[in-house]
Design a protein that fits this description.
Layout lengths: L1 H18 L20 E6 L17 H14 L5 E4 L9 H9 L4 E9 L9 E4 L5 H14 L9 E3 L3 H4 L5 E8 L3 H7 L2 H21 L24
Parallel strand pairs: 1-2, 1-3, 3-6, 4-5
Antiparallel strand pairs: 4-6
The protein binds zinc ion.
Length: 237
């Protein structure tokens, strides 16, 4: 009788190993609880080098420069943590190479930092996630950012979207659009170092909260969504 119960469990175990490439406890779709107790953060400054990202007609700022500034600020706000910058200079890094880089860091999270572009009337931060294991972290980041941003307008807030950096890494991963460079008022706020520091503080607080509490207090997790890895031919990143 005992064997009859155990055999299906063994089969389930073998199948799950096969689908995760043998990484027991990991799920290639990210269908697992959010991380807790982690002390390592891979910080990704979006764009770089030949990839300028967004450009602000109001301040002349380039997204790639602001993203790197934010990455360095975030690193400084996590003393005693293991923090790794995906890039620490004005260099181009392919998105798939960023995924590979993140995959070399176990028990870590990935936070990709960007600034947004859109219709001039839209302002405020947006946080993107795709996987179940990244939901609470994304929600905490969006909540903390919203608390320091005055007069948000029309932005998408917390967004579930399959991107290469929200779907493909092995580790929990979120992408943060820290504000719209296309909005005059927000672009001028972003040009102020004190404001960018407040944004970095907010993201760091959210990361610390996630590590301390995991998914607790974030309500039910979103349903798992099965989708193949995101490819360069997919929607905008
Ligand atoms: Zn970007």
């Amino acid at each position: 009788m005992r064997y009859l119960i155990a055999l299906p469990l063994v089969l389930v175990f073998l199948v799950s190993c096969a689908t995760t490439g043998g990484r027991i406890g990991r799920d290639e779709m990210g269908h697992r609880p959010g991380p807790k107790g982690f002390r390592a953060v891979v910080i990704d400054a979006g764009h770089g080098g030949k990839d300028r990202g967004a450009y602000s007609p109001h301040t002349g700022a380039k997204e790639k420069d602001l993203a790197l500034d934010m990455a360095r600020r975030l690193k400084r706000e996590l003393p005693g943590w293991q923090t790794v910058l995906m890039r620490d200079g004005d260099v181009f890094v392919d998105l798939d190479d960023r995924v590979d880089f993140a995959n070399h860091h176990g028990n870590a999270i990935l936070v990709s930092l960007h600034f947004n572009d859109g219709p001039s009337g839209i302002s405020g931060p947006e946080t993107y996630y795709w996987r179940v294991d990244s939901y609470s972290l994304a929600r905490r980041i969006q909540q903390h950012l919203a608390a320091v941003v005055p007069g948000e307008s029309g932005n998408r807030g917390l967004v579930r979207r399959r991107l290469r950096l929200t779907r493909n890494p092995d580790i929990p991963c979120v992408l943060v659009e820290c504000g719209y460079l296309s909005n005059a008022a927000e672009a001028h706020r972003i040009a102020d170092a004190g404001y960018r520091q407040a944004l970095a503080d907010a993201i760091a607080d959210a990361i610390k909260e996630q590590s301390a509490h995991g998914d607790a207090g974030m309500g039910p997790l979103p349903p798992p969504l099965n989708a193949p890895p995101s490819r360069p031919t997919d929607a905008r990143e």
